[in-house]
Design goal:
The chain starts with 21 loop residues before the first helix and ends with a helix. The strands form 4 sheets. An 8-stranded mixed beta sheet has the order 12-11-13-10-14-15-9-16, sandwiched between helices. The chain has 25 helices and 22 strands. By secondary structure, it is α/β, with parallel strands linked by helices. The protein is globular. The structure holds adenosine-5'-diphosphate and magnesium ion.
Length: 726
């Protein structure tokens, strides 16, 4: 055995320099993102196998995962000629009996497990004609410290070429470097909470003696994450609150007049949210508010009221949507809502630029001359000259409300006096765009030096309360928890194979009476560029030829260009199609009030929140609407999800259910939130979040720039690269 001087290694030494890892395993570990010793120490197990209890051989029964201890009473290496396989077969005996253990193609096992050796085996007990046996169990000579057996054995995320066993083996010698780790959490906080410090926690995570050890270490890391999130979010808030914004006076009479001109009366929730927003706008510091309302709860009109108030005071508004389709739809809704106002509205996306209603101010006769929304032939016209003109108008302030995609926040766009930014479906924006929005909003070019715009974010993803607290602590929240009164509950049913035809007949009847329908189908996992197109086309063809040969079916899929999608949606809206067959691209915000039926194929393949978003495509008009969940899958979890859809109509109830069924990690999407799993497990722990929030406040009060906590500062920088707080 090569003996090497481990003193020369430090926490930041490359794994490739560690002899037992070397050039052979380092590249594989690198694939897991592990480059230094520190990385490996921070490579956490995702679960533990409990081998700490020893089972007597006489007590074994098939199917159980256990550890036995005994002596090798027989050992042989057999070669099977037929299959050319090497089989090591041992008999292990303790004071109560003997059991067989076999290893395939691991001839070296028989070199170590010779007769008379003491051994520990861990694994699942199997049974064949000759009786009970272990197949490829983890094993260890009992003279060694237990690492792979006989304890709580950590199981690591693996990749081909490095097993959990390998990682455990490396950690045996490398774990001592945990002592070199410095803790970013102030010591007094950990002491106050009775939590282990970083090096202790790292050791407990990899070498726990009891489940309690694991839990304690996990709790520490959870706290660490929550504390970081809280510090980050409180700092954003502190910095945000220090900024200046223009004050937009609340002109009550003017707004009242607008509200009374609406074809409906506002819900109490809409009223309340709008009022909260007006109050924010009156302040000389920028608003940072999240408007959280279920699909169809009427967020747009609330946004419109805020926009109107702002524009009426002579300032500009930017409304950002995640897709061109949605941006167009907002243009249309706002144009309608503002048809009696002196407001010029522009649309700026990568494909279109247009200005509507501008003429009203400048030139009464040619009012609406550029209003081309209902003219689908013009939709594909994208003129660069128009873009230039529009950008000029923005800079001059000739456009009051600009609607668009992230093209709006490109650097070339300058405003005269942008005072309000509204971000719709903000969760759909990419992380980079969101980061730009929040942190770079100051950089938006306009003629209001020293002031930043008020920010209103809107989302239709109902966020469970605990998550709001954990992730959006820096935001003010308005919730639309009430649906417009005229809304009928969407009748939702699960449909098995036998009732398909009946459902199709029902859809045909609805269409005969003037309605329209959506048919949504999922794409198989492996669908890549070409196959999505193929799958979508085939589905469309099958439905048009076999099921609804008498009806007109449109097709919407993700491979269409934005302008093409636009045309399909526009045509559907204008009733050129009876049925729109669509992949999940139809998910966000599309408003077709005449559509009253939605069929979701293979509904069990979608998550609850997504199903809810789909369902929200119907029930947007005065017609009774229906949602049919087609399913053939029998798994009970999938059924449970679908039953929740049938039972609940409120997105908030569904979100809570989803949260329960899937757990916080999946619900929020670890990748999206940047919060590691171990912290996620504790995220419903409101107490812990509150404690973290209190400590974060204390820390920042004591050292606003964190100059007293350089490690924390560094950690935070790293953390903020991964996660972005709204
Ligand atoms: P979302 O919150 O999903 O964005 P929208 O703002 O698109 O919802 O509103 C959905 C539909 O409900 C629109 O057609 C809108 O005109 C209508 N609506 C909004 N508020 C009310 C209300 N208070 N009463 C009746 N209908 C309303
Ligand atoms: Mg909307």
């Amino acid at each position: 055995m090569i003996v090497y001087n481990e003193i020369m290694f430090k926490l930041d030494s490359k794994l490739s320099e560690v002899p037992r890892i070397g050039k052979r395993y380092a590249p594989i570990l690198e694939k897991l993102g592990l480059i230094t010793i520190e990385d490996l120490l921070k490579h956490f197990p995702f679960r533990y196998e409990d081998y700490s209890e020893r089972t007597l051989i006489s007590d074994l029964s098939a199917g159980e995962t256990v550890t036995v201890m005994g002596e090798v009473s027989q050992s042989k290496l057999v070669r099977t000629w037929k299959k050319k396989m090497m089989i090591t077969e041992c008999h292990i005996s303790d004071e109560t009996g003997t059991v067989r253990a076999v290893w395939f193609n691991q001839p070296y096992v028989s070199d170590s497990l010779t007769k008379g050796k003491g051994v520990r085996l861990s694994g699942k007990v199997a049974k064949d004609l000759k009786g009970l046996f272990f197949s490829n169990p983890a094993w260890e000579l009992s003279s060694r410290e237990p690492t792979n057996t006989g304890r709580l054995v950590p199981v690591y995320p693996e990749t081909e070429g490095v097993s959990s066993r390998f990682i455990r083996w490396q950690l045996q010698t490398l774990i001592k470097h945990a002592d070199e780790m410095e803790d970013s959490i102030p010591e007094n906080i950990l002491k106050g909470l009775h939590l282990p410090n970083l090096s202790q926690a790292i050791k407990l995570i990899h070498f726990p003696k009891t489940i309690r050890d694991c839990e304690l270490a996990q709790k520490r890391f959870a706290f660490q994450q929550m504390y970081l999130v809280q510090i980050a979010s409180q700092r954003v808030k502190i910095a945000w609150d220090k900024q200046n914004a223009v004050t937009i006076a609340f002109n009550e009479n003017f707004i009242k007049k607008f509200v009374s001109s609406l074809p409906f009366s506002l819900t109490d929730a809409q009223r309340k949210a709008a009022f909260q927003i007006f109050k924010d706008l009156e302040k000389p510091m920028p608003m940072n508010r999240l408007l959280n309302g279920d699909v169809g709860s009427g967020k747009t009109v609330v946004a419109a009221m805020a926009s109107l108030a702002t524009a009426n005071e002579g300032f500009q508004v930017a409304i950002l949507a995640p897709t061109e389709v949605l941006a167009r739809q907002h243009l249309e809704s706002l144009t309608k809502l503002f048809s009696n106002q002196d407001i010029s509205i522009g649309l700026l996306t990568n494909s279109y630029q247009m200005v509507v209603q501008e003429s009203r101010i400048k030139n009464q006769e040619s009012h609406n001359s550029k209003f081309m929304i209902h003219d689908s032939k013009n939709l594909s016209v994208s003129k660069n000259s128009q873009k230039k003109e529009l950008i000029e108008k923005l800079q001059q302030g000739a456009i009051n409300v600009i609607i668009g995609t992230h093209a709006i926040i490109q650097e070339s766009v300058k405003f005269k006096n942008l005072a309000l930014v509204i971000v719709d479906e903000q969760h759909r924006f990419g992380v980079a765009q969101r980061a730009f929005l929040q942190q770079g909003i100051e950089k938006i070019n306009d003629g209001l030096p020293g002031k930043i715009p008020h920010l209103l974010s809107m989302t239709a993803t109902p966020i469970p309360r605990t998550l709001t607290l954990a992730f959006f602590g820096n935001l003010n929240l308005s919730v639309l928890n009430e649906m417009p009164k005229n809304r009928k509950i969407i009748i939702t049913e699960m449909v098995g194979a036998s009732s398909r035809q009946k459902t199709y007949d029902f859809v045909r009847d609805e269409i005969k009476s003037g309605r329209q329908a959506f048919i949504i189908f999922p794409l198989v996992e492996e669908s890549k560029v070409l196959t999505e197109l193929k799958a979508a086309t085939e589905e469309h063809q099958k439905l048009s030829e076999k099921v609804f040969p008498d009806l007109k079916l449109g097709l919407l899929h993700g491979k269409l260009k934005s302008t093409e999608k636009e045309i399909v949606m526009e045509d559907f809206k204008n009733k050129k199609y009876d049925i729109l067959v669509a992949t999940s691209v139809v998910e966000v915000g599309i408003d077709i009030p005449n559509a009253s039926v939605i069929i979701i194929e293979d509904a069990d393949r979608f998550g609850l929140s997504q199903l809810h978003q789909f369902r929200g495509r119907v029930g947007r008009g005065e017609h009774q609407s229906y949602c049919f969940l087609f399913t053939s899958s029998g798994t009970s979890k999938a059924k449970e999800r679908l039953r929740a859809m049938v039972k609940y109509s409120s997105g908030f109830d569904i979100a809570e259910e989803d949260f329960k069924l899937r757990g916080p990690g999946e619900f929020f999407g670890t990748r999206q939130s940047g919060i590691p799993d171990e912290a996620m497990r504790h995220i419903t722990n409101v107490k812990l979040i509150e404690i973290a929030s209190d400590y974060a406040e204390q820390t920042l009060a004591d050292s606003p720039t964190l100059s007293k906590h350089p490690l924390l500062q560094k950690e935070l920088e790293k953390f903020q690269q991964d996660i972005h707080l709204e």
